[in-house]
Amino acid sequence: MIVEHDEEVIKSSDYIVDLGPGAGINGGKVVYSGWIRNLLKNPKDSLTGQYITGKKKIEIIKYKTKRVEKNASLKLYGASHNNLKNIDVEFPLGKFIVVTGVSGSGKSSLIMDTLYPALIKELRGAKVKPGYYKKIEGLENIDNVIAIDQSPIGRTPRSNPATYTGVFDLIRDLFAATKEARMKGFKKGRFSFNVKGGRCEACNGNGYLKIEMQFLPDVYVTCDVCKGKRYNKETLSVKYRGKSIADILDMSVEEALEFFQNIPRINNILKLLSDVGVGYIKLGQPATTLSGGKLKE
User: Fold this and answer.
1) 231-242 pLDDT, tens per residue?
2) For residues 165 and 283, what is the distance between their CA atoms, to the nearest angstrom?
3) Spatial distance between the Cα atoms of 43 and 46, rounded to a whole number of angstroms
């Protein structure tokens, strides 16, 4: 029994259990259960079946990429970080490049420890120390560099999509500006679950209590005082359009997108999350329940 997305592996299976119909809160149901041959004959409501039979296809969008001069490249000379042995490497621009090799051959040392830090230091003035290299040429051909990896966005339930994307700051501004908040003297910090005063002190604003397990991973249980809402009663009494700050964190991106449709700064961030396919996640969903790639897309 395997959990798989790959089309060829699915086609090679005997029996399939297809879950859906959507992702996250839109899923959780058995869409199809049976022999793969029957699914291929009649995909029905199964998106999996419709895609592997060709009834649905993922269209490849042709993006207009920035034009680069013919044969333009980045050239790194004398890279000697870790086990790199004073090597010179040329990276052609305007191409899809793969750096490969056996474990320990120097891939990460070359790209993540040397080239990337060198580029952000030169292009952005970042205060980083790249792995040793003699010089780099071709910087005039690029204007920015972005690194995307699979490192977690947070290691505790305190971190969530709202805080990671910065939209929570904007939401707290709205709550602090309500008539009720002004009457009670509540400032923006009152609506942060990281600050004393507004948060639930029983769980320090986590919404969860951590139980340390000897020889096993820590276990998180819902706080029995705030019931996972993170805030005390006084803070929760302040409402924006009938919703408390905890109600907002419990919204999915799609729900919040509709709720804040008239607030452009918030709407723009939420729309970006929706456009990349993570509209089903909740704004306050603990980062420990998210894979590293979800919000980095």
Assistant:
1) 999 999 999 999
2) 10
3) 5
Highest average pLDDT, of 66-70, 158-162, 189-193, 205-209, comes from: 189-193
- In which residue are the tokens 């010089």 written? 135
Q: Is the pTM of this model over 0.85?
A: no
Pick the range with the lowest mean pLDDT from 41-50, 120-129, 222-231: 41-50
- For residue 250, what are the CA distances in angstroms to 23, 82, 229, 243, 283? 17, 46, 9, 10, 6
Nearest to 196 by CA among 161, 154, 231: 231
Place of tokens 């009649």: 42
- How many Cβ atoms from other residues are within 10 Å of residue 160's Cβ? 26
Helix (H) or strand (E) holding 33: strand 29-35
Q: E strands within 50-119?
A: 73-79, 87-92
What size, in residues, is the chain?
Answer: 297
Beta carbons of 282 and 168 less than 8 angstroms apart: no
DSSP secondary structure string, 153-183? Answer: S-SSTT--HHHHHTHHHHHHHHHHTSHHHHH
Distance CA 52, CA 39 (A): 10
| Maximum distance among all Cα pairs of the chain, rounded to whole angstroms | 66
Cα–Cα distance measured from residue 228 to residue 250, given in angstroms and rounded to the nearest whole number? 10
Which letter, b or e, does each residue of 268-294 get, where b requires 16 or more Cβ atoms within 10 Å of its Cβ? ebbbebbeeebbbbbbbbbbbebeeeb
Q: Which residues of 113-129 are buried (b: 16+ CB within 10 A; e: fewer)?
A: bbbbbbbbeeeeeeeee
Q: Which amino acid is at 178?
A: T
Contact status, residue 222 vs residue 284, Cβ threshold 8 Å: no
What percent of the chain shows pLDDT beyond 90? Answer: 57
Task: Please choose, from the candidates 228, 237, 209, 226, the residue with its C-alpha nearest in 3D space to the C-alpha of residue 284.
Answer: 228
* Amino acid found at 122: E
